[in-house]
Amino acid sequence: MLLACLGLCVLLAGPHAIEAFSLRDFVRPGSNKRDAGDKSPCPTWHPFECPSGECVPIKYLCDGSPDCSDEYDENKSMCTAATRPPVEETALFLKTLMHAHGKDFLVKVFGEKARNELAGMGGVDKVAVSLSQSPTADVFAKEFVFNPQEEQGMIGVFEGILNGTPEELTANEASDFRFFVQKLQETGFFN
């Protein structure tokens, strides 16, 4: 199979089979939007697909200037998630904590709703998504309908971990949680 391109591409699939097409069929200058129903992935130079169909370079995501017509590339939840550990890693981290310290360990952090491996909060995956996407602790708390005491309790545990004075956790438990809580702090979770 031979492929030659210079504005017009020629594909030689066999001794006599020739197929020609224009690069313009695949790349339209001045347009990053694909036709409705186009199932092909975005090109490598514009790999992020907006829900509205445009393809945007990664470097333009969360840069303060909307590039998607629906402004999805500046969505606060998505931009927050881009600065935090991936949801899959967060879910695995939470599961590892519960495996190491007991299935109800996270009750010490999130309160009674976290009993039974976070069942009262919708499960590990839902909590992991929210920790990745919630810009602040109060947004996280609202999602899980925390009352003010539950929210302050969670923040108190996290602050104790950061300050090295966790009252609710053992030194070992706090140590296991510290890196993740530092990531939350660095990305504005406590603002």
From TrEMBL:
<keyword id="KW-1015">Disulfide bond</keyword>
<dbReference type="InterPro" id="IPR002172">
    <property type="entry name" value="LDrepeatLR_classA_rpt"/>
</dbReference>
<keyword id="KW-0732">Signal</keyword>
<dbReference type="Pfam" id="PF00057">
    <property type="entry name" value="Ldl_recept_a"/>
</dbReference>
<protein>
    <recommendedName>
        <fullName>Prohormone-4</fullName>
    </recommendedName>
</protein>
<dbReference type="InterPro" id="IPR036055">
    <property type="entry name" value="LDL_receptor-like_sf"/>
</dbReference>
<feature type="disulfide bond">
    <location>
        <begin position="50"/>
        <end position="68"/>
    </location>
</feature>
<feature type="signal peptide">
    <location>
        <begin position="1"/>
        <end position="20"/>
    </location>
</feature>
<dbReference type="InterPro" id="IPR053103">
    <property type="entry name" value="IDLSRF-like_peptide"/>
</dbReference>
